[in-house]
Design goal:
Layout: E1 2-6, H1 13-22, E2 26-30, H2 36-43, E3 47-49, E4 61-64, E5 68-69, E6 72-73, E7 83-86, E8 98-105, E9 114-118, H3 119-124, H4 128-136, E10 139-140, E11 145-146, E12 149-151, E13 156-158, H5 162-167, H6 173-188, E14 191-193, E15 200-204, E16 208-212, E17 222-230
Parallel strand pairs: 1-2
Antiparallel strand pairs: 2-15, 3-17, 4-17, 5-6, 7-16, 8-15, 8-17, 9-14, 9-16, 10-11, 12-13
Length: 233
């Protein structure tokens, strides 16, 4: 599942792009420098970084750390809470298909592990009728209606963010039952990665759901996140 590289060695950006385009793997690059600029420039070799007003200085890198504003967490990402498995930017019309996470400071005692589940594992747990339902029924993702699964002859994608889905619409009992079953499938087929300092992971945002475990509120845990779309997408 993991494809390993070392930043201190010559990096084959063409191969990394192919890994992300064609495989169901997560790329891990060790000994990556703790620099927003170097992270952004590195990603520009394989994709187009997404700028957002939430990012550091409205650029492309976002600090995932505990942060409050007027006594409240700015977001789930900026809390110490468990973050359920989800798709980043699921409410966008064009969802960035890749994410990079650089570990600057891990949480203590192996807390705050990143969690993942891949689409292929999810599909194996679904019946044909369930897959048909998830590819045809559209859900409200704050800004747009879309199905949870998109499958055609060449591509497969998953879009899921239950926090957003429940925050901006009222789900009926049958809809909640569908999502409850999906959540159980996600959890049962998930795996975790305890990132070490200086490790950068790259993965497909449309082929993996990702989340994290909780950690102590006074932890210095810091990850740098960058979202991007592959150049050839």
């Amino acid at each position: 599942m993991l494809i390993n590289y070392n930043y201190s060695e010559e990096i084959d950006f063409v191969q990394i792009s192919k890994d992300l385009e064609t495989s169901n793997s997560i790329i891990c690059i060790e000994n990556f420098p703790e620099s927003d600029e170097k992270l952004s420039n590195f990603i520009k070799n394989i994709g187009i970084p997404i700028e957002d007003f939430k990012n550091n200085k409205i650029k492309t890198v976002f600090d995932v750390k505990v942060m409050k504003q007027k006594g409240y967490f700015k977001s789930v990402a900026n809390s110490n809470y468990t973050f359920p498995l989800h798709t980043d930017c699921a409410d966008y019309e064009k969802v960035p298909n890749c994410i990079g996470l650089l570990c600057v400071q891990p949480a203590e005692n192996n807390e705050g592990a990143n969690t993942f589940v891949d689409l292929e594992s999810i599909l194996k747990q679904l019946s044909e009728s369930e897959i048909e339902l998830l590819t045809t029924k559209k859900w409200w993702f704050r800004k747009i209606y879309k199905p949870i699964l998109e499958i055609d002859n060449q591509t497969k994608s998953i879009f899921y963010d239950r926090i957003t889905m429940e925050s901006f619409t009222k789900l009926d009992t049958s809809e909640k039952m569908i999502l409850n079953k999906l959540d159980q499938i996600f959890i049962q087929n998930s795996f975790k990665i305890n990132l070490k300092k200086g490790e950068l992971i790259l993965f497909r945002n449309d082929l993996f759901l990702h989340g994290r475990e909780s950690f102590e509120i006074d932890s210095n845990r810091l990850l740098k996140r960058i979202r991007f779309t592959l150049i050839n997408s």
